[in-house]
Write a structure and sequence with these properties.
alpha+beta, Dna Ligase, domain 1, three-stranded mixed sheet, 5 helices, 6 strands, binds zinc ion
Length: 138
């Protein structure tokens, strides 16, 4: 994934590539894991971009609505943001508190189909986190 591809997705969602938007997307591309809001702000600040809270919040809402960025809630530590790169879930280390995003296969989506069939309940989404210890903390 690169900035050109992200720009196409922004345009496909009816948006323009503003300076702030480009800086936000570049900072996500430059980070290797999900970011809390404060991490997003720090990465932006390093790029000389310091949007106020409202602007940044509005920017994230646009990117989430366009399916370009995902927002997840990690218990007890607030919201985290990252680029959408397929079906992913988070590994949360109870030692160093690192949150890692890992690709996930589609068996959970098959479970959602089963829930529709057996429970007559249409699932729109799910949240799943794994808690444990990373290699360093084990
Ligand atoms: Zn750890
Ligand atoms: Zn899932």
């Amino acid at each position: 994934m690169d900035i050109r591809e992200l720009e196409q997705r922004v345009r496909a969602a009816g948006g323009r590539m503003t300076k702030t938007r480009r800086a936000v997307l570049e900072s996500f591309l430059g980070s290797d894991g999900p970011q809390a809001l404060i991490g997003v702000r720090e990465a932006l600040s390093k790029r000389g971009c310091e949007p106020d809270r409202t602007t940044l919040y509005r920017e994230l809402r646009f990117l989430i609505g366009a399916g370009i960025v995902s927002e997840s809630g990690i218990a007890k530590r607030g919201r985290i943001y990252e680029l959408v790169r397929g079906h992913r879930h988070h590994l949360v280390c109870l030692g160093c508190r690192e949150v890692r995003s890992v690709p996930f296969d589609d068996h959970l989506h098959r479970e959602e189909e089963r829930i529709l069939r057996d429970e007559r309940f249409r699932v729109l989404g799910h949240e799943l986190e794994f808690y444990g210890y990373c290699e360093r903390c084990r």
